[in-house]
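In these records, each integer encodes one residue's backbone shape. Here is one protein:

___
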Amino acid sequence: MSSKQVVLYDTTLRDGAQTEGISLSVSDKLQICERLDDLGIPYIEGGWPASNPKEMEFFRRGKRLRLKKAVLTCFGSTRKANTSVGKDPQIQSLLAAGTEVVTVFGKSWDLHVRDVFRVPLEENLRMIADTVGYLKRRGLTVMYDAEHFFDGYRENPEYAMKTLKAAAEEGAGTLILCDTNGGSIPSAVAAVVGEVRRRFPAPLGIHCHNDTDLAVANSIAAVEAGVLQIQGTINGYGERCGNANLCSIIPVLQLKMGYRCVPPARLKTLSEAAHFVAEVCNMRPDDHQPFVGPSAFAHKGGVHINAVKKNPRTYEQIDPSAVGNRRRILVSELGGKSTILEKAQELRLELGRDAEEAKRFLKRVQELEAQGYHFEAAEGSLELLMQRAYKRFKRFFDLQGFRVMVEKDEKGAMTSEAAIKLKVDGVTEHSVAEGDGPVHALDKALRKALAEFYPAVAEMRLVDFKVRVLESRAGTAARVRVLIESQDAKESWWTMGVSENIIEASWQALVDSIEYKLLKDRKA
């Protein structure tokens, strides 16, 4: 086991929560906190107690969490200018939070001192020293975030260094150098870290934002230059373009550079943790995110698939299972017959090794994709297509017909109604339902008709609906592709339909979504 250690400091609950579109409840934050602890993150920044009552409620409830290893920290600023540190309400809120570790930030860039604080440079130094010293004398471990340090150092290196000295002399345990505007490049970060190391014996940390898409690279460069702590967020969440993404930093350091970040057994839960945090934050996971995204180890080209089958190292930088991910074989017009057979094996379908049969199925895929189908985006529909083509599938019901009506009254209110007639094992069922729109009405009517025969349909729900116009020049007569994501207690899946009629395309995707659910339950 490597003796090299990097300490991770997660700020998803504070910096990550500043992402546009994210709003975390206290319950959300508690769930994420426990999941980060399970991953093996040593420090979890819970938030800024003075910012709003919800943050203080989190710390009150957070004391009852049974964290296995993680240390909960709170975050705040230095005292206000020309104010006694003991009388600053914001400083008192840090004490009231009840954490053993406090992270405070101060201004390192003289531009901010002059234009934002509008105080003399010496007063800013006193603000830093007074705050760190006050908290240290009350028995707290203090980490100091040197905000805008790299910008400040570039324009006034002497003053930037004085701000670090003010914190270090009062007992700050770790000095964190912040690239707050996210505008630095790795070589500059490494050079500045080297200069700071020569001046200060205290442990150093790095806190990077991603405005130049270099937050991960800058963090790695800082580690190579000697920092011992990395601050970042899960999935790179954060204000503007985000923060340094711990889901990339952890495997890079641990699998490629020999550092110890999290317990090796917990590294295998990284993908699961990334998806969990995305779900709690109500953010769609990035399919193409390195290491943890579903596309990170997805292979589409026939040459790639053939090579990976022979030796995974040919097109995979690491074993996907090392970070809890998996290899995916994508079926499309770019693949060959071996792709079909590999995909069947992945889906645990016994199709035999008939090359001619595989060729016929590939031709069918190519024909459908020429019409606008996109099977790599809807593997539920792909499996059903494969089952039907190889005659491994018996339909769960037969449609006799459906009708959809949309009405708008004089007050502008819209109503949608769908009527469906179908047969299940020779039994005819007719149902009618209203919905918020035509697709919703169709979905409700279909479920209503099937409920008596297949109660499991009540366990699933539609979570996403996407429409793509495939021939924009055809205007309202264009063919459209409808993608539907469905979910039950165990997993989610995508299905698809293509037609010039959006209702028909939606129907195809709806039917596939339900039949996929019933098929997987049958196989379970």
